[in-house]
Amino acid sequence: MKRWMTVPCRVPDHAAAAAAAERQDTLTKPPGSLGRLEALAIQLASLQSRKRPRVDRVHIAVFAGDHGVAAEGISAFPQAVTGEMLRNFARGGAAISVLARELGATLEVVNLGTVNDPGDIPGVRRDIIASSTGNLRHVPAMTDDELDAALDAGVRSVARAMADGAELYIGGDMGIGNTTAASALACALLGEKPETLAGPGTGLDKQGVARKAVVIADALRVHAAADTPRDKLRHYGGFEIAALAGAFVNAAQCGLPILVDGFIATTAALAAVALRPDARPWMIFAHRSHERGHGRVLDALQATPLLDLHMRLGEASGAAVAVPLLRMACTLHGSMATFAEAGVSEA
């Protein structure tokens, strides 16, 4: 295990949470009338050690990597799309590029390795591990060194976010074949059957989903001896999934709140919590993806997402869409008048 992985995660500030809850009770509204927006403000106060939290400075990191399992025909799109999308991110044409601009968020795109390497692209950080993971149907997805490199890539991303003064960290993914890898990893971590978690991903039909489930079932048999969370992440995961897991653990160690995206990111969060259970309090879950297995993974993490918009794009897009909710929660909490300030009678 990497030495940094043994460092305990920060403990949320319960005094700040109590102060925020006390403020909520004095605002000009019936108690609880703003529902989960109140709870969000209190949670963010505890994570930021602020009576009045803010999420003005948002850092979004999208990790990209190719998967050897794509050779099994488990995606509706060709593997070349991973590398091609890196250019689209950099040019500002991808959904997360548009959303980041709208939010005024910092967006970094990290290339961990693609089969069709696009080379140096302005706006894309090269952190190459290999051109692809191994085909998890037959061999481990990563070697020990590759897994460590992917985890460390996540740590470096968090360091950049902290240096930028981020108040919220969002991790996203890009990689043809990654719903297969995430489904296999979730099956291994939760003891679920592939038929339960395998979904359409990029748009597979019923036959394609059935084929994906067979590939995952084969992988589960081949890698049945992988019994620790680290081993499961190495055998079934992807470069971007491991980088997200590393980032989530390190963000919790640094005391940086995390807004978790959809199925891929939530599976990475599941792996992160398996590696370091004390990372869980630092995670807020943005949305319920339309991908079949997402609900089961959310349940395993005892997570109630903020939104359910039938999204399944990845790229951190669902998390980005949820940022305005967090900002509204903070604005209401910090800017509403108290009963005393407004001269309004209390209940």
UniProtKB/TrEMBL annotation:
What domain of life does the UniProt record list for this protein's source? Bacteria
An example Gene Ontology molecular-function term = nicotinate-nucleotide-dimethylbenzimidazole phosphoribosyltransferase activity
Q: Which Pfam families match?
A: DBI_PRT
SUPFAM superfamilies cross-referenced by the UniProt entry: Nicotinate mononucleotide:5,6-dimethylbenzimidazole phosphoribosyltransferase (CobT) (SSF52733)
Task: Give the E.C. number(s).
Answer: 2.4.2.21
Known catalytic reactions: 5,6-dimethylbenzimidazole + nicotinate beta-D-ribonucleotide = alpha-ribazole 5'-phosphate + nicotinate + H(+)
- Which InterPro entries does the annotation name? Nict_dMeBzImd_PRibTrfase, Nict_dMeBzImd_PRibTrfase_bact, Nict_dMeBzImd_PRibTrfase_N, Nict_dMeBzImd_PRibTrfase_sf
The entry's keywords: Cobalamin biosynthesis, Glycosyltransferase, Transferase
What the entry lists under PANTHER family is as follows: NICOTINATE-NUCLEOTIDE--DIMETHYLBENZIMIDAZOLE PHOSPHORIBOSYLTRANSFERASE
Q: What does this protein do?
A: Catalyzes the synthesis of alpha-ribazole-5'-phosphate from nicotinate mononucleotide (NAMN) and 5,6-dimethylbenzimidazole (DMB).
What family is it from? Answer: Belongs to the CobT family.
What is the protein name for this chain?
A: Nicotinate-nucleotide--dimethylbenzimidazole phosphoribosyltransferase
